[in-house]
Amino acid sequence: MSLKSLLVAIFACVLFVSDAAAIRRGYHRFVVREATYTRLCENKKILTVNGMFPGPTIEAYQGDTITVDVHNRGNYNITIHWHGVKMLKNPWSDGPEYITQCPIKPGGRFRQNVIFAKEVGTLWWHAHSDWFRATVHGPIFIYPKPGFSYPFPKPAAEIPIILGQWWKGDIVRVLQQLRFTGGQPIDSDAYMINGQPGDLYPCSQNGTFKAVVKKRETYLLRIINAALNEILYFGIDNHTLITVATDAHYSKPQSSQYVVVGPGQTLDCLLHADQTPASYYMAASPYVSGRGVNFSNTTTTAILQYDAIFPIAAPMELPLFPAYNDTLAAMNFSYSLRSLNSQEHPAEVPREIDQRIISTISINARPCPTANPNETCQGPNGTRLAASMNKISFVRPPIDILEAYFYKIPAVFLRSFPNRPPFVFNYTADELPLDLEVPKSGTKVKVFKYNSSVELVFQNTNILGGIDHPMHLHGMNFFVVGWGFGNFDEENDPMNYNLDDPQERNTIIVPRGGWTAVRFKAMNPGVWFMHCHFERHMTWGMDTVFIITDGSRPEERMLPPPPDMPPC
Beta strand 478-485 with 543-548: parallel, antiparallel or unpaired? Predict the structure, then answer.
């Protein structure tokens, strides 16, 4: 072989190795299958990814694209959603069942391309079919691009904090019971930190999660609320948390003794290990404002342990949280956060809008059907519980909306989600007429022109007593420009908006008895789900779909469907 041929061969080999390494860094194989786990003194089979609970961590740089092959070796249909990832022009891989795809059937496979944009910080992935996200979920860590750094001192290490719920019973049965009875779901039996209930639950001390730290070091806590149905307080005894990012977007540093995290939300918090070397409890417990809402008023714990020899250990104490129903305390934290809005990380808030939508978000009740043996009526006064946006309880179609939109399949959805509530009333009054309780059903979506500036006002109502709602938008982040208690005043409240440095989110907690206004630029063509991230409310119909049309240029158009879309 000539020297030239040898050099060409070596160069080709180096290219192959380099490309293979790049593929390995940007490729993941998710095998959805059952695995047996022991919690609360009992063994139980749960659905997992790769046998892990919580599931595997995905790591990426800002702006990366990764490929995930999802193989369904379980016994149920499944989809996977990349929560908070914008998926630019690629709703095909977004994941919500019957919104952007039909489910992956047992034995099936689907290759999903996960396209990151400006997100940097902590997000997560989870199942988006039935209630399987109870155990099918895991973290996503997004780092600054190589050559760039955090806008805060580099931490010594990072500590994942994944908050969740555990049921002793099969989660399939929990959902079946909800649908059969028409009432509230069975309460979870424990809350969890990183898949473990902690010291205060039976048979749980040996598995309690421990994070070992060194005095005078700083750590980055990546906090994810993966719970199905609860907003949670989280804190560490005798330590301060400094929030530096919300839903994978940098925020102004905000110090607090506790944080409030709604289902679907993430926070990046700095922790300075500046206390006397010892062991300290980390803990999470529920915040619930609704009247008559069933929940488990218990506490999950983990341990922050200093890596030092210290004298006889003193009993650990729990961090102090507000009362479980202290709405003012919970909202004061949630709405105290602000975007960093620096020269390197500007807050690009739409200052002028093309359209304002006001949507009520309500818990509802339907009259009891008389001839369905598969349903009973254990809601208030013999009704069946429901939920709605602008009094429309969303119905998922038999094929996914994205394919119906792309292929122009008729009679799957209506483009008639209203811009205003059908009735104007005192939404937050303590007593409301019974006729407001019953919603209409439908598959109604809202269509936006590409590049339009949208304001969306969530008006909570006190129908059936009311409760907070963590509202989540797929495909886009939004800026939280305003909020308040009572009814939104379209004339006066916008004058008090924060258009300079509002927090940037994909999920926001709308307060009980109040409203929240968000703004976003409709610059991601495709079909995107909008829903409450309480699993029970989403099941009851507190959902809609936003469709963003293609722009005029090729780079402003939705990508074509992949060849292996799961069949309906």
Answer: unpaired
pLDDT at 11: 29
- Using a 10 angstrom Cβ sphere, with 0-12 exposed, 13-18 middle and 19 or more buried, the burial of residue 322 is middle
Beta bridge partners of 222: 160, 268
> What whole-number distance in Å separates Cα of residue 545 and Cα of residue 539?
15
Tokens 């630029």, located at residue: 521
* Strands annotated E in 50-156: 58-61, 65-72, 80-83, 109-115, 121-127, 137-143
The amino acid at 29: R
Length of the chain as a residue count: 568
SS3 assignment, position 7: helix
Phi–psi pair at 131, nearest 5 degrees: -110, 30
User: For residue 513, with 0-12 CB atoms within 10 Å meaning exposed, 13-18 middle and 19 or more buried, which class applies?
Assistant: buried
What's the Rg (C-alpha) of the chain? 24
Distance (Å, rounded) from C-alpha 454 to C-alpha 16? 47
How many Cα atoms sit within 13 Å of 515 on the Cβ side? 24
Distance CA 139, CA 161 (A): 9
293-305 pLDDT tens trace = 999 999 999 999 9
DSSP code at position 305: E
Helix (H) or strand (E) holding 22, with range, is helix 3-25
- Expressed in angstroms, the distance from the first to the final Cα of the chain is 55
Tens of pLDDT, residue by residue over 430-452, are 999 998 999 999 999 999 999 99
- DSSP string across 198-247: -TTSTT-GGG--EEEE-TT-EEEEEEEE--SS-EEEEEETT--EEEEEET
Burial 8-21 (b: 16+ CB within 10 A, else e): eeeeeeeeeeeeee
Strand order in the sheet with 543-548: 445-448, 543-548, 526-532, 469-473, 507-510
Amino acid identity of residue 503, one-letter, is: Q
- Over residues 401-417, the pLDDT tens digits come to 999 999 999 999 999 99
- pTM for the whole structure: 0.94
The contacts of residue 489 (CB under 8 Å, 6+ apart) are none
Write the burial class of residue 452 (CB in 10 Å: 0-12 exposed, 13-18 middle, 19+ buried): middle
Core vs surface per residue 54-72: b (16+ CB within 10 A) or e: bbbbbebbbebebebebbb
Give CA torsion, residues 93, 94, 97, 101, to 10 deg. -30
Q: What is the DSSP string of 108-121?
A: -EEEEEEE--S--E
